[in-house]
Amino acid sequence: MFRFKPIRLCDKEIFGRYITGEGEFSCESAFINLFVWQDSYKNEWATEDGQLIIKSGEGKNTVFRLPFGDDFQRGIELIREAAGEEYPKFWVQDGRRLDELEDFLGTHYELLEERNSFDYVYLRDNLAELSGKKYHGKRNHISAFSKKYNWEYRPVTKENICDIKRCAELWYEENCYRNNRHLICEKSGINTVLDNMELLGAKGGAVYVNGEVVAFTVGSPINDGIYDIHFEKALKQYDTAYSVINREFAKRELSAYKYINREDDMGLEGLRKAKLSYHPEMFIKKYTCIPKEQK
Predict the structure, then answer these.
(1) Is the overall model pTM greater than 0.90, yes or no?
(2) 3-state secondary structure 71-90
């Protein structure tokens, strides 16, 4: 019986061998997300017979991702073995592997749509240019910010990581009233990613006002066609800087990508409204895949 283990920084190369291809659009295929959020979601992994198996949760709350590898049927067999049951519970996203599951086991499962977890995917050109009537409000935000502040954009480098960390610390102080396990995990994750940008293949950008970072973003590629935004923060006083950092990072750093995944809205009304206002090109739907007998 193979053993599951925690995700370490040095595992990135192994994950990269399995989680590739243009068919993967979900932010949950990004190594940084699997790594950063493993304490919150109890993510663990194993490889066996050329298959990558990822599970989350514990006990009765354990769910499996669909297997990565070149033999889907063998991957399902390994998950059954690990779960100790014929029809384990899956956490799945739209795409080729979900189609394979439905072809293989579809009559035994029911898909429960998880709207709060849908990924918002945008055309990079739309976010970089903000052209047309539908982005009029975003251009106004940037114009107002530019009139009020003498700002500049800088990419994240080894030389200014301390500036980014200082901004992050201030942001978490401003939002301490929301202090929960997810924010604690995120705060630790931001620092880890910033300390290992090159190893993780991550890039970032920052907006400076009077020599201080007031907004920043950090992301990494899911594959050659789509880029994932993991973190984006702006200090409360400079709230419209979200529009600035969003555009500047897409324009200056992401010209090689067709799509940008800005992840989910967690069911937060304000965040959902903000993400919809950028007019996503598509949603990546997520489902809990439950055996009909358990439901």
Answers:
(1) yes
(2) CHHHHHHHHHHHHCCCCCCE
- Are 61 and 173 contained in the same domain? no
**In a shared domain, residues 34 and 151:** no
Instruction: List the chain pLDDT tens, one digit each, 295 residues.
Output: 689 999 999 999 999 999 876 577 899 889 999 999 999 899 999 999 999 999 999 998 999 999 999 999 999 999 999 999 999 999 999 888 888 888 888 888 999 999 999 999 999 999 999 999 999 999 999 999 999 999 999 999 999 999 999 999 999 999 987 767 888 899 999 999 999 999 999 999 999 999 999 999 999 999 999 999 999 999 999 999 999 999 999 999 999 999 999 999 999 999 999 999 999 999 999 999 999 876 5
65 plus 93 within the same structural domain: yes
CATH label of the domain that carries residue 68: 3.40.630.30
With vertex at residue 288, the alpha carbon angle to CA 282 and CA 294, rounded to the nearest 5 degrees, is 155
Based on the fold, state whether residues 256 and 164 are members of the same structural domain.
Answer: yes
75 assigned to some structural domain: yes
Rg of the chain on CA atoms, in Å: 20
CA separation for the pair 180, 178 (Å, rounded): 6
Does residue 70 contact residue 50 with C-beta atoms inside 8 Å?
Answer: yes
Copy the structure tokens of residue 219. Answer: 């992301």
Distance CA 87, CA 42 (A): 21
Burial tier of 87 (Cβ tally within 10 Å: 0-12, 13-18, 19+):
middle
User: Would residue 278 count as lying in a domain?
Assistant: no
Shared domain check, 243 and 156: yes
Residues 17 and 72 in one domain: yes
- Domain ranges, residue 21: 9-117+285-291
CB 234 within 8 A of CB 170: no
